[in-house]
Amino acid sequence: MSLQAWGLLFGFVILPALCIGLEKLWPQQRHYRTLRAGLGGDVLWYLAQSLVSRLLAPWVVFAAVLPVFVLAGLPLENYWAGFGPLGALPFAAQLALVFVLGDFLSYWQHRLFHTRRAWPVHAVHHSSRELDWLSSTRFHPLNEVGAQLIFVAPLIAIGLSPLAFVWLAPFTATYAVLLHANVRWHYGPLRRVIASPTFHRWHHSRAAAAQHKNFAGFLPLWDLLFGTYYHPRGAYPEDFGIEDPVPEGFWRQLAYPFRAAGGGPAAASAAEPARPATAAD
Q1: Lowest CB count within 10 Å: 84, 104, 164, 258, which one?
Q2: What pTM does this model have?
C-alpha cells in the first residue's frame, strides 16, 4: 500500500473508528450520540479541513517565505532542505525545534484568534455545543491559513526544513482530533506536562472561570507561563458552545466570518496582562 493510500485509510477509516470507540468506552458526556445534530455539516468540515491544511495552506506558506529565499539569493530547489545554521542541524534536532517552537507560536496564534477582530473566524470552531472528535475540524479556512502563517512560515523563514513539519503533521493532526474527543482523560500527574482532552475541552467550556484559558496545543507550559492555565482537579466541563450567532450548516458557517458585524469573546484579548497560574490545578 502506498503512503498516500495509507494516509487516506488512516484519516477516513481508522482514526474515525478509533475516536468513536474511545468515546463509547470512556465518555465524558454520556448522553452524546454518534448520530448527533450538526453531523452532516461537520463531515463536510472534516473533508474541507483535510484539503485546506494539506493543499491550500502549504502553498500560502510557501508564498509567504518566498521573499526570504529571493532576498537571500537561495535557490528554490533547496526549499525542502532548509538553510543556514538551523538547516544544517541533524534532522532529529530540527524535529524537536519545530515541535517546541511551533507549539509556542501556535499558543500565540490561538490567543490572537481570541481577540475581537479575529474572533468571528475562530467562533466557527467554538460553535459546537456537543463537543466531540469531529468538532475538531469545524475550522474555517481563514483560521487554518492564518494559523500556519503564524506558526509554520516563521520557522521555515529562519532556516528549518519544511520536511520537519511534514513528518510531524500526522501526529499533530491526530492529536488535535483527540484533544476534542468526548473522553474523560486528564493524564493525572502529567496534566501540567501534556495537554489532555479534558484540558482542551475546558477551553471550549461556557463556564466563566474557563474563558480564555488553555490555548496550548500540546505543552501546557505556555499556559502556565502566561497565566492562562485552567484544569481543576476532579471537575469536568459540562456546557459547550458560544453566545455568538454562528448558524448551523457548513455553507452558512463558511460565510459567517464575512457576514458577522464584529464583536468578540466577552473577556478581552491576548493584549491583556497575563495573570499567574492559580491553585485551580
Answers
A1: 258
A2: 0.90
